[in-house]
Amino acid sequence: MAANRTGGSPRTRLIAGNWKMNLDHFEALTLVQKLDWALRDAKVDREAIDIAVLPPFTDIRSVQTLVQGEKLVLSYGAQDLSPHDSGAYTGEVSGRFLQRLGCAYVLIGHSERREHHGEDDALIGAKIRAAVRHELAPVLCVGEGLETRQAGAHIAHVLAQLDAALEGLTAAEVPGLVLAYEPVWAIGTGETAGPEEAAEMATALRGRLAELMGEAFAEATRILYGGSVKADNAAAIVAAADVDGALVGGASLDPAGFASLITEAAGA
Ligand code: 13P
Fold it and tell me: Is 139 in the pocket of ligand 1 (CB under 6 A)?
């Protein structure tokens, strides 16, 4: 991993666009092509910041073809995977299939999956293991709801989510792990945790990772913030202490806007 940060941080920033259930495979091709052009126009140093898109499953093959065919400097991944590798699991998608499509990342435990699909800690832990079996970097999403934040219990809540997801795993068993702190009250609402709040949680997460997995692992692990990140707040957020990038929903669906967001984050 290349160093691109001052202050001795060894972590390359990562900006990942979670498309959620938006854009079919034709639209995916258009977006990725336009995004690449916009990033070239803006002269974003692609070695200095990692950029990823996380499209719906049905788009991934098209994105792979474009990225590999045009040799784009862009990673991609999926929004979920099955905890199983193969078999009678109707509707599920194996990590093996994602690896075969060249995916680098997979989101695990996004709050929308926890909420709408009843994903619990045990399932999230199993999905992390499945991702690692197939050499996909798990992007573990954690975050508190509004009531928990208002009660002042957000740090305890999020650290408990981290403990539960990593239960029984050692550092060697989760290479490439990425954490994404996404306060549920900030997702798609236009509300965003300020840089101080993002930093407070990222620092707490890194501290707990050090306890669970050791200092070296914690120092190497990227911690993203997600929740209404836009071009105009991206720089302040990624400059916050212990925040290594952003997981972007709505603002990743417009190629010019997403390129501006990335440009801001790369320059912060
Ligand atoms: P928004 O950027 O649309 O708030 O979504 C955040 C998110 O859930 C990314 O995973």
Answer: no
Give the Cα separation of 238 and 264 in Å (integer): 9
For residue range 98-118, what is the model confidence (pLDDT) as tens digits?
Answer: 999 999 999 999 999 999 999
Determine contact, residues 180/224, Cβ cutoff 8 Å.
Answer: yes
Can you tell me whether residue 43 is helix, strand or coil?
coil
Give the distance (Å) from ligand 1 centre to CA of residue 251.
8
Q: pLDDT tens digits for 20-64? A: 999 999 999 999 999 999 999 999 999 899 999 999 999 999 999
How far is it, in rounded angstroms, from Cα 206 to Cα 224? 11
> Which position among 119, 182, 200, 264 bears the catalytic label?
182
Task: Please state, in angstroms and rounded to a whole number, the distance separating the CA atoms of residues 246 and 227.
Answer: 9
Question: CA angle 80-66-100, nearest 5°?
Answer: 45
Pocket of ligand 1, candidates 21, 106, 112, 247: which has the most ligand atoms within 8 Å of its Cβ, to mutate? 247
C-alpha–C-alpha distance, residues 223 and 221, integer Å: 6
Half-sphere exposure of 3 (CA within 13 A, CB side): 7
Signed CA dihedral, 180, 210, 11, 99: sign only: negative
238 Cβ contact partners less than 8 Å away, ≥ 6 residues apart: 13, 15, 225, 244, 245, 246, 265, 268
Q: Which atom of ligand 1 is nearest to the CA of 230?
A: 2
SS3 call for 134: coil
